[in-house]
Write a structure and sequence with these properties.
The complex is a heterodimer. By secondary structure, chain A is of the alpha+beta class. Chain A contains 21 helices and twelve strands. By secondary structure, chain B is mainly α. Classes of the chains: A alpha+beta, B mainly alpha.
Chain lengths: 480, 285
């Protein structure tokens, strides 16, 4: 590399030059933006080696179990830098998401030593952790011999970081002082609005700012745009239908899924008056303006319909709207984003979040080496590379969100996305109560919603019955 | 002799056409989808008129998938190769083991024959996951985990009982007198089995083999649990087109067309044996 380029990158890494300034000046030397990005990434990797013994596990190999996802693609695209930095070999198995968790469960429950680390959702660690299948990572994070100072654990968004830590007590607060760090956040999703700007403009609609407005706007969109339904939300009989928009709106009203008593016992909390009112509005919204086949809608249908112009907006994961604004989607380039606080009395949104995280198998024979990979993959350098060069959104680090290039890139192609994130991030966290029956109880909640939308049961009665059933199951499991 | 009226012939024709349309339309639609982009597939309302593209097949064959987010490597052709290897290997092994066993159960009945045959059949009753988790532990200890040999062995849970029970029925339908006559000529039981019983039960063996092949080809869970990503069959591989950044409908359709082709060709080729084999013994004279 020429000295001039080297000096510029050094200045950037030492904080004397902004990223934008660096790329501008490199461009003046004939270096393209993409090449400049790769150059910075490579130099950053070299700089990392200066303050930590990254070669400690040189010659060791680790094996990963990964889900087919843009986060995985970003990691694979940058993996050579890790191999060069550490001298380690990394093998990986990538499985489609539809079967991914079956594979993880089979590998962990059989005590397989094949995989050292794997991708997981934070909710899944509520099963894997107490079962003894995954490792508490606090031991590694807090050890300066094993973790580089530049890793900067406190740089992680607080709500996201805490959501990956649980003390294993049913109802225990996420991120409490005695919590075990079951996984490391990698990339995450908030739940907010993504809407079709063209449709909104043509129909003269404004972006809704609370649940009542959302119900009205969705109905107006359906009435004024031919062949389009108003709002896309998930509806299949699965826990995954509760956790995105629905729970984000629910939590914004200050509502909880479960109460935790002074004796630590859990009880259902979803049949309060406020909850019943919120449920009624949600059910009406789907009945009036939701997808005709709402009860089958998962992530895929919600996203596909927005991208194909079959729905006017979605209240779901922000990155789902992000993906639908690109590629060969009919509505690519027409989508925009907005933060959403369902409760008119709330100060800000409080989105429930999904976190793709990295966890370490308790059965791994190479835990220290696996941690080297995990800290690199969740470190600030890779986070910045993925966010600026690939589709590694949403990053979990505050430093990446502060990066001017990243913000500018998002703002340019994804109108409103940065603002949406900034407004929502302080209140973004897992809004569920951590407990082992999470998947069963939440799936039953989704089934109850289906019955309400189909008018098989009135909202009040449905929620009372749900609470009764939840309480019975909690008692049977000695949790209530 | 019964005569069919023109009206009856016409109505029968219409009924057959409706049945064909009902069963074949999904396949026809999938074939059409395989020549379209996601955008034309998702048009509202759907249409038969479109500009065909070979991009989906190209992506599968070259191994590069263009998604909304990025260009991804896909391993569909490798998945196809794995399916062929696993299914053919499993059926061949099941035929080698199952046909002599079926002959033995049909001709040399002992006190425990029925119990043993029923035990083998019972392998088909158990939910695969119930068997697979303990099997994973044994496979790891035996070094069979993540090997083609190990998978072909596990596939015997599907193929062996099927072949054994179907072929046993065919052997039982062959008159024993034919075999006795051959043995009187000084031939051993093995020669009798090889030169008389097997050729006579040929259509049945072909039909059983084909059915076992279809079951093995469609299997999903064994390789998923017991093997790495590089040994997965098409049934798992096809799911790779359902990604977080969108569903690649065109590539899924092309993958379906490619993955049903071997079974379809085999079924068409073996149709004569299949019909003959499946109807053998249906009418006893």
């Amino acid at each position: 590399m020429y000295e001039k380029e080297k000096d510029l990158v050094h200045s950037f890494l030492n904080g004397r030059l902004s990223r934008r300034g660096l790329i501008k000046r490199l461009a003046g030397l004939g270096v393209s933006a993409t090449a400049a990005g790769s150059l910075v990434n490579m130099m950053a990797t070299n700089a990392m080696a200066a303050d930590f013994d990254w070669k400690k596990h040189s010659g060791t190999g680790v094996k990963l179990l990964l889900n087919k996802h843009p986060y995985t693609d970003a990691m694979i695209a940058n993996l050579d830098n890790f191999k060069q930095l550490t001298g380690m070999d990394v093998q990986y198995d990538v499985f489609p998401e539809d079967v991914y968790f079956d594979k993880v469960t089979a590998a962990l429950s059989s005590g397989s030593t094949e995989y050292d680390a794997f991708m997981t959702g934070a909710y899944m660690t509520w099963t894997y952790g107490p079962a003894g299948w995954i490792t508490d990572l606090n031991e590694w994070i807090g050890d300066p011999e094993k973790t580089a100072a530049s890793y900067n654990w406190d740089d992680m968004l607080p709500g996201v970081r805490k959501s990956c830590a649980w003390n294993g007590q049913p109802g225990g607060e996420l991120g409490s002082a005695d919590a075990k760090q079951w996984c490391i956040p990698w990339g995450y999703e908030q739940n907010n609005l993504a809407y079709n700007r063209n449709m909104f403009q043509k129909a003269g609609l404004s972006v809704p700012t609370n649940l009542d407005e959302l119900v009205d706007t969705a109905a107006q969109a359906k009435a004024s745009i031919d062949g389009v339904y108003g709002i896309g939300v998930r509806g299949s009989r699965s826990w995954a239908s509760i956790h995105p928009g629905f729970l984000s709106a629910y939590a914004n009203y200050g509502q909880k899924d479960l109460n935790v008593g002074a004796d630590g016992k859990l009880s259902a909390a979803m049949n309060t008056d406020v909850s019943k009112d919120m449920h009624s509005k949600w059910v009406k919204m789907i009945q009036d303006s939701g997808a005709p086949d709402w009860s089958t809608h998962t992530w895929y249908q919600v996203g596909t319909d927005l991208g194909a112009g079959a729905s006017a907006m979605i209240y779901d994961a922000d990155i789902l709207g992000y993906f639908m604004n690109g590629g060969d989607n009919k509505e690519a380039g027409n989508l925009a984003y907005a933060p959403f606080a369902a409760n008119p009395a709330a100060d800000a949104p409080s989105p429930n979040i999904w976190i793709w995280s990295l966890a370490m198998s308790e059965f791994s024979k190479k835990k220290d080496a696996a941690w080297y990979f995990m800290q690199w993959a969740s470190g600030p350098e890779h986070g910045l590379f993925g966010a600026t060069q690939m589709d590694f959104v949403n990053p979990v680090r505050q430093s990446v969100w502060a990066d001017e290039d990243f913000r500018e890139r998002l703002d340019k192609s994804y109108p409103g996305y940065v603002d949406m994130h900034d407004v929502s991030a302080p209140g973004a966290k897992i809004q569920f109560t951590a407990q082992p029956l999470f998947f069963d109880l939440t799936t039953e909640w989704a089934a109850t919603l289906q019955k309400m939308v189909a008018n098989e049961v009135p909202v009040d009665e449905g929620l009372d019955k749900l609470a009764e059933s939840v309480n019975r199951q909690l008692k049977e499991a000695d949790l209530g | 002799m019964l005569e069919t009226s023109p009206l009856e012939t016409f109505l029968r024709g219409v009924a057959i056409l409706l049945v064909i349309l009902f069963f074949m339309f999904p396949i026809f639609w999938i074939v059409l989808m395989s020549f379209q982009t996601n955008e034309t597939i998702l048009r509202i309302p759907p249409s038969f008129i479109f500009e065909p593209t070979f991009d989906n097949y190209r992506a599968l064959i070259t191994g590069k998938l263009e998604t909304n987010a990025a260009s991804l490597d896909i391993a569909f052709m490798r998945n196809m190769g794995n399916s062929v290897l696993l299914s053919v290997g499993a059926v061949l092994l099941a035929l080698i083991l199952g046909v002599p066993a079926a002959y033995s159960f049909a001709r040399h009945k002992t006190r425990f024959s029925e119990d043993i045959a029923f035990t083998l059949l019972s392998f088909r009753f158990a939910p695969p996951l119930l068997v697979l988790l303990p099997l994973t532990i044994y496979f790891q200890k035996l070094g069979l985990s993540d090997t083609y040999f190990g998978l072909i062995w596990v596939y015997q849970l599907i193929c062996l009982p099927l072949i054994l029970w179907i072929v046993r029925g065919y052997f039982e339908d062959i008159s024993e007198d034919v075999e006795y006559a051959y043995r009187i000529g000084g031939h051993s039981w093995f020669e009798t089995f090889r030169k008389i019983a097997v050729p006579l039960a040929g259509p049945g063996i072909a039909a059983a083999g084909l059915l076992a092949f279809i079951f093995a080809w469609n299997n999903f869970i064994f390789a998923l649990v017991l093997a790495s990503a590089d040994k997965q069959p098409v049934t798992v591989g096809a799911l790779a087109f359902v990604t977080a950044s969108g569903i690649q409908y065109g590539q899924i359709a092309a993958a379906i067309v490619l993955s049903i082709t071997p079974t379809l060709l085999l079924a068409v080729y073996a149709q004569k044996y299949l019909v003959e084999g499946l109807s053998l013994g249906a009418v006893k004279g």
